Prior knowledge:
By secondary structure, the chain is of the alpha+beta class. The protein is built from 4 helices and 5 strands. Strand 4 and strand 5 form a beta hairpin.
Amino acid sequence: xxxxxxxxxxxxxxxxxxxxxxxxxxxxxxxxxxxxxxxxxxxxxxxxxxxxxxxxxxxxxxxxxxxxxxxxxxxxxxxxxxxxxxxxxxxxxxxxxxxxxxxxxxxxxxxxxxxxxxxxxxxxxxxxxxxxxxxxxxxxxxxxxxxxxxxxxxxxxxx
Length: 159
């Protein structure tokens, strides 16, 4: 198996931002997801909208979108991108008392948007945790992963 070189380091081993000037601008999309599991009381409160701090999923959606837009400020070597679309959707898995967050990000540019999508889904899940921690300190965030990436030289990736 051929080993790929890490391109965030120069020849002397110092961290650098990857030069994307030679890449073509293409439409790019990334989809990520993650889960937060919680006790039954917390899950029902989120589902019914009765958490004292407010609309948990609505606020988590906005937090995730805001995080997408701030990714380059949070992840040191990420490029600043002109994001053209960002959304967070939630699926409630009642049998497991688990909420799935899905983040979809789009942009036209020279580098991918998977870090933005991963940051968005992470912030959405962390916001749910923050808003529900008074009800359940045993919540668990898990399974954050890239589901789909398209655009650029590497083309389509689907998990």
